[in-house]
Amino acid sequence: MDERIEKVRLLIGHERYKEALERLTSILSEDPENRQALFLQSIALQNMEHWKLALQSSKTLVTVAPDWSWSHHRVASVLNGIDKERKALPFAHEALRLDPEEPDHFALLAYCHSGLDDWKSMLQAAENGLRLDPEDQSCTLLRSHALRLLNRRDEAGSAIERLGELSPNDPDVHNSMGWLCLQDGRPTEAMNHFREALRLDPDDGGAREGLAEALKGQNILYRPILAWYMLSARLGQKGSMALILGLWFGMRLLEHLPGPDWIPISLFVVYFLFVWLSWVGSSLFDLLLYLRRDLRDILAKRERTGAQMLGISLLCGILLAPITLVFGKGLVSALVFGVFFLVGIPISGAIGMPNAKSRMIGNLIAASAFLMAMAGTLFVLSEPRFDPELQPPVYGYGPTLLSISLIISLLSTLAMTGLGLVPEGRGKR
User: Fold this and answer.
1) 332, 324 in Cβ contact below 8 A?
2) Are 88 and 80 in contact (CB under 8 A)?
3) Taking the CA atoms of the chain, what radius of gyration do you get in angstroms?
4) Any idea which fold 3-217 has?
5) Which tens digit of pLDDT belongs to each residue from 216-249?
6) Which of 33, 67, 79, 241 could form a disulfide with 84 if both were Cys (CB 3.0 to 4.6 A apart)?
7) Interior CA angle at 113 toward 112 and 115, to 5°?
8) Total-model pTM
9) C-alpha angle with apex 348: 345 to 351, nearest 5 degrees?
10) In sequence order, which ranges of 116-170 are alpha helices (DSSP H)?
11) Segment 411-427, tens digit of pLDDT
C-alpha cells in the first residue's frame, strides 16, 4: 500500500481535508488514474461540501475503474448528499451487483431509500446488510431508523439498545435513542441522550438539533406540533401533503352541513392555525429558545438567523397593524397583521431546506415576501384614507403590494415543497 495514500487517509480521518487534497493533487499529477487517490479525493471534497467537484471526481473514478464497486458507491454517495436519491439508486445497485457481499453498499442503498421516504425498502436494504454482518453499525442504525418511521417503535428500541451495548460511546446511538424517545413523548429522556451524544462529540450537529427539539418538547404547547412533525415524517412528503389537502376538502364538505354559521368559521380558523404552525411552529419555538441567553447557543447558526428573521416579521405585524388602524385604514390593518405573520412561512421554510442552493432560493422567496409587505405597509401609511364611495374606488399601491406578499407566502409552500421541503420538522432524523 502506498504510504502517501495511507497518510491521506489519516488526514481525512482527522478532518484535515485541505491538506489531504493538496497531497492528492500531487499524487494524481503523477498518476491521473490512481483509483485510491480519486476515491479519497471524492470523499474529501464531499466532506467539504464541494459537491460539484466531488461529483466530478467520483465520475472520473467510474471511468478509470468501472468494475470496482466503490467507484459506483462514491457517485451514489455524492448524489445522495445533494438530495438526488433517485439518480443515486442505479449507482448503488451497480455497486451491489459488483460486490453483493459488502454491507456498506446496502447501507448506502438504505440511505437512498430514506431520502425517497420509502421506509419499507430502506428497512429491507438495512436488513440485507445485517445478514452479511449482524453487528454492522450503519445498517443497525438505519434499520432502527426505518422501524421508527414505520411506527414499529418496540423493535426500533430493541435494535438501538443492542447496538448501545456494543457501542456505548457512539454518539449516533444516543442520537437515535433520543429521537425514539421524542417520538414516544419522553423529551426529558431524549434530552439526556442528546446531551450524552454532544459530550462524546461536541460538533455533532444532529445531536444539537435534537437537544433543541427536546427542550422545546418540554413545553406542553409544542408537543402537538412535535407529534405532527413525527407523523408527517412517517407519512413522507406525498402523504403529508395528501393529509393537509384531505383536511381542507373535508372542512369544505362540513361547511355545507346544516348548523350554526360559527362552526365553519371556527373550522377555518383551526385549519389555518394548523397549516401555519405546521410550517412555522418549530421556528416559533426556536425564537423562544433564542430569547433565552442561556439556551440560544444550542441552536444552529441558520436556526438562530431564522429565529431572528421570524421575530422581526412577527414584531412588524404586531406593531404596524395598530399603527395603520390609528391612521384610519380600517380593515387594511388586519391585512397588514396577517401578511407579516404569513411571511413566517417562507422564513421558516428556508431554514429547513436540504442544501445550500435550495436554502438560497428559499431565502430569496422569504425576502421578497417581507420586502413586499414592508413596501405595502409604507404605501398604506402614506396614502389617503380609502373611500369606497369613489367610482371607481381607488385602492392605491399599498393593498396591492400587501396582496402580492400574501400570495408569495402562500405559494411558497408549493415552491419549497418542490425544492424538497415539506412541513415535517426534524422527525426524519
Assistant:
1) yes
2) yes
3) 25
4) 1.25.40
5) 888 888 888 888 777 777 776 677 777 777 877 7
6) 79
7) 70
8) 0.71
9) 145
10) 119-132, 137-149, 153-166
11) 887 776 655 544 444 44
